[in-house]
Each structure stands twice: as C-alpha cells, then as structure tokens.
Write a structure and sequence with these properties.
single chain; alpha/beta; Fructose-1,6-Bisphosphatase, Chain A, domain 1; 5-stranded mixed β-sheet; 6 helices; binds magnesium ion
C-alpha cells in the first residue's frame, strides 16, 4: 500500500467538474432537435451520453480506479478495490427534458466510505460538492415549526401520510434522489425520507455532500449506510437535520423494504 488510495483535493475537484460538465452536456441535449423524443428517446439518449462522458473521463483521469455506474456493467473487481467511483449519470431521468428535477451524481468511495461526492442540478444552476463543502442553510423559521419533508414520488401517498400524521410534517414529493437531498442541503426542506429500496448510485453522491454539509444520513431504522456492497441495492434512506432523525426513525423504521 502506497497510501495513494486516499481521496485527494483533486478527487473532490474532479467529481465536481465531471458532474457540472455532464449536466451542461445534458442541458444541451434537451435543446437539441436531433433527438427523437418518442418512446422515451430523450431519456435514453441522456442516460447513454452522460454515462459515456463520465466513464471516459474517469478512464483517462483515474485509470486505476473502478467505476460502478447505473448505466454500466457491474465490474466484479470493485469488491476488492479500495477506490470505486459510484455514479448515476442522470438521476430522475423521467423528468429529464420536462422539469428541473434531475441531477448528475459522481461519488468516490474509498475503503467503503463515500469520501468524495458531487451532485449537479443544472436546472438550479448549481453543483454541490464535498470540498468545498456546502454551508448548511440555517432554518429560517421559528423553532417548533412543522418539519418540511420531501419523499419519493412513488411512495408519497403512504409514507407521506405517516410522516404528516405522526410528525405534523409538510410533505413534498419529487422523483430525483439528488434533487431531494440537495433541497435539504440548501434549506428548502428539513429532511429527505426514502421509504423502500434504492440503489447506491442514487444515494452515494447525495450522502457524501449531505454529510459534508452537516446533515445526518442513515437507513430508516437508524442503522449505518454501507457502500460498494456486492449487491448495490440498499434499503431506505434518511437525510435530515440532526434534531429530526430520531423522530423520523420512530415513524419509518419498518418501511425499509
Ligand atoms: Mg440514472
């Protein structure tokens, strides 16, 4: 071991640059008249081009590292690798071309820890990263106000009802995991609660950024998140302001699957 596996300042900068550049390419694609939009053609082309842009750049800039991408083939060498990039080239792709609610996720897991991450939300003109870390916006309303919680669109009815009834939460629903997580980072929401499973590429970069901003990230039962597992599927997720986590776990602990 040379010690060269640890994340460097260059890794943080590279993640942010790849997320931003890929987001810009995708915005250009939404404006292109050359893509056939029928049968989810835009979504398909966005997934494909974003994946290629990120994996080609990582192959050139980090040739010794392994990549796990939603759109790529799973490389079994990642299980023995110290450094693994986990990327979702286009998160929230069903919104791609139709709303601002999609994102690009680039994360680097070192020794199982999401050490580096960047989430670009081009519709908001911003990329959040781990270094420099975002400032967590202080909640600008009086304490004791109802928590604002964003949940998955597909689970909004039941999970949203529970959170609303038990915690008095104002509940919102969005598709993209990156957009939901960044809405907490930028202070619009107090928590993101994902009932049921998701994949590591959905959560890895958002978790890296959210932790850098001082938010707590865990499973719905409060247990520790793990990354670069043999099965990249992951039970539910909480990203929240520290003071809210216990309350959310008490309501959602049995909604992991
Ligand atoms: Mg995707």
């Amino acid at each position: 071991m040379t010690g060269s596996t640890a994340a460097t300042a260059d890794d943080h900068a590279l993640a942010a640059r790849l997320a931003t550049e890929t987001g810009a390419m995708l915005v250009g694609l939404t404006r292109s008249s050359a893509v056939d939009r029928r049968w989810s053609g835009l979504e398909y082309e966005g997934d494909r081009r974003a994946h290629l842009q990120i994996v080609d750049a990582l192959a050139a800039e980090r040739p010794d590292d392994i990549v796990l991408s939603e759109e790529g083939r799973d490389d079994p060498r990642r299980l023995g690798a110290e450094r693994v990039w986990i990327v979702d080239p286009l998160d929230g792709s069903s919104d791609f071309g139709y709303s601002a609610n999609w994102s690009v996720h680039v994360a680097l897991v070192v020794g199982g820890e999401p050490s580096v991450g960047a989430v670009a939300v081009p519709g908001w003109g911003t990329t959040w990263a781990t270094d420099p870390a975002p400032d967590l916006v202080p909640r600008d309303v009086e304490s004791g106000a109802d928590p604002r919680i964003v949940v998955s669109r597909s689970r909004s009815r039941y999970d949203g009802m529970r959170l609303s009834q038990a915690l008095g939460a104002d509940v919102y629903a969005v598709g993209s995991a990156g957009v939901k997580a960044m809405s907490v980072v930028r202070g619009e929401m107090d928590a993101y609660v994902h009932g049921g499973g998701l994949y590591e590429w959905d959560s890895c970069a958002p978790v890296a950024v959210a932790r850098a901003a001082g938010l707590v990230c865990c499973h719905l039962d409060g247990s520790t998140l793990e990354f670069n597992k043999s099965d990249p599927w992951s039970p539910g997720l909480i990203i929240a302001r520290p003071g809210l986590v216990e309350d959310i776990v008490s309501v959602m602990f049995d909604r992991q699957y």
